[in-house]
Design brief:
- This protein has 240 residues and is α/β, with parallel strands linked by helices.
- The protein has 2 domains: 117 residues, Periplasmic binding protein-like II (D-Maltodextrin-Binding Protein, domain 2, 3-Layer(aba) Sandwich); 110 residues, D-Maltodextrin-Binding Protein, domain 2 (3-Layer(aba) Sandwich).
- The chain is built from 10 helices and 10 strands.
């Protein structure tokens, strides 16, 4: 059987800017071409569970574990790549909300006329978490009337909604906010409200180029790649 020269990648949108920078170097070094598809982790996990093929998938750690347990991933291929923190953005030059405490964040949310978010159901990992945060802070009803939800994926980033002037404040994974040139990233959520998402890679059992999937994982674990991952707003996992 001929060795496949194309590597199909299904990845969380949070890794998009990482692949944009590292992809060409990987292709030059290995001779393998990357076929990249990005989307919200929960959506990708559903697609993989339904049998969609890929040579490497990067989703949440829990999702990757579940897919391997379902027989959709190769046991032993699981590899943590990076941790992601949820952050807040505003349009370039706009006043920055106070994120120094949970109460300061609550006050900022109540003052804002509109807030852009990932969908709480079927969207990115940040959407479900923020729905629980607003419930905990007792402002879920107030936010419901001012929430604008991104469509998900690279074209539906929360930062794009803010950059277009359609929302005052945006909340999403830090790496996804940093991917939009027209916004200022204020910073991460207060520690008391933060949720850290572990993004993990694995090789699906339906992979046509499993060797390529493993090569991508090895490449992402190199020191130079880990430096890029950090520069793009993620916290690379340490190797032991």
């Amino acid at each position: 059987m001929a060795i496949q020269s194309e590597v199909t990648v299904l990845s969380t949108t949070a890794m998009k800017t990482v692949f944009e920078e590292l992809g060409p170097a990987f292709e030059r070094e290995t001779g393998l071409r990357l076929n990249l598809t990005f989307g919200p982790s929960l959506q990708l996990e559903k697609r993989l569970a339904e049998g969609e093929g890929a040579d490497i998938a990067i989703v949440t750690h829990a999702g990757a574990q579940d897919l391997i347990a379902q027989g959709r991933g190769i046991a032993g291929s699981l590899a943590d790549i990076a941790r992601s923190f949820i952050g807040v953005c505003v349009a370039k030059g706009a006043p920055r909300p106070d994120l120094s405490s949970a109460q300061a964040f609550k006050a900022a949310m109540l003052r804002a006329g509109s807030v852009a978010l990932s969908k709480p159901i079927g969207g990115g990992a940040s959407g479900a978490h923020m729905a629980s945060v607003f419930e905990r802070l007792g402002i879920a009803a107030a936010i419901k009337d001012k929430a604008i939800y991104g469509a998900g994926g690279p074209a539906g980033l929360v930062g794009l909604i803010v950059a277009r002037g359609e929302a005052e404040i945006g909340i999403q994974q830090m790496a996804e906010l940093m991917a939009v040139a027209g916004v200022d990233v204020v910073g991460p959520l207060p520690d008391a409200l933060q949720s850290v998402t572990q993004f993990t890679a694995f090789v699906p059992t339906a992979a046509l180029a499993a060797h390529g999937g493993r090569a991508v994982i090895d490449f992402l674990h190199r020191p130079a790649a880990r430096a890029v991952i950090k520069a793009k707003g993620l916290e690379p996992n340490r190797l032991y």
